[in-house]
């Protein structure tokens, strides 16, 4: 019996951790009115069955239930999802006098380049996850 309860506790913990990566914004419940679009937290409307990426690097979709958003960035390039709202590894240990970090909103990632020659990347020894 104790083994069963322990197993259920572990399972419940994993389900909670996994679900923390996504959230749902349900449609406003108006009786007799079926929604044909979704309104996000910024007030932007999206057509039914559409998908988009937010500025905080979340992939969202609009369906008959509302808006569903999940974190989009892989952790360490291994395909694992990260449970933070802003899922960006931030460069921390690099030559800040010679180099600068640049954020790419399309890929939701930073790159570190030389200030005088942005075509050249700089080595980064540490990242803040």
Radius of gyration: 20 Å
Number of separate helices: 1
SSE sequence, one letter per element: HEEEEEEEEEEEE
Which regions are unreliable across 5 or more consecutive residues at pLDDT < 50?
8-20, 74-85
CATH topology of the largest domain: Complement Module, domain 1
- Bin the helical content: 10-25%
Strand percent estimate: 35-45%
- Distance between termini? 40 Å
How many domain modules? 2
Strand order of the largest sheet: 1-6-5-4
Question: How many E-type strands?
Answer: 12
Shape: elongated
Broad structural category: mainly beta
CATH superfamily of the largest domain: Complement Module, domain 1
Mean pLDDT: 78
CATH architecture verdict of the largest domain: Ribbon
Under CATH at level 1, the class of the largest domain stands as Mainly Beta
Keywords: Disulfide bond, Secreted, Signal
Subcellular location: Secreted
Protein name: Beta-microseminoprotein
Pfam families: PSP94 (PF05825)
């Amino acid at each position: 019996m104790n083994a069963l309860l322990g197993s259920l506790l572990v399972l419940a913990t994993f389900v909670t951790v996994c679900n923390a990566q996504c959230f749902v914004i349900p449609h406003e419940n108006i009786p007799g009115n079926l929604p044909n679009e979704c309104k996000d937290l910024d007030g932007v409307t999206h057509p039914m069955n559409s998908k988009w990426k937010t500025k905080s690097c979340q992939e969202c979709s609009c369906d008959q239930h509302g808006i569903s958003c999940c974190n989009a960035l892989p952790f360490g390039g291994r395909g694992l999802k990260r449970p933070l709202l802003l899922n960006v590894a931030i460069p921390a240990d690099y030559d800040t006098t010679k180099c600068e970090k640049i954020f790419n909103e399309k890929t939701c990632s930073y790159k570190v380049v030389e200030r005088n020659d942005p075509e050249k990347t700089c080595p980064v020894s540490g990242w803040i996850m």
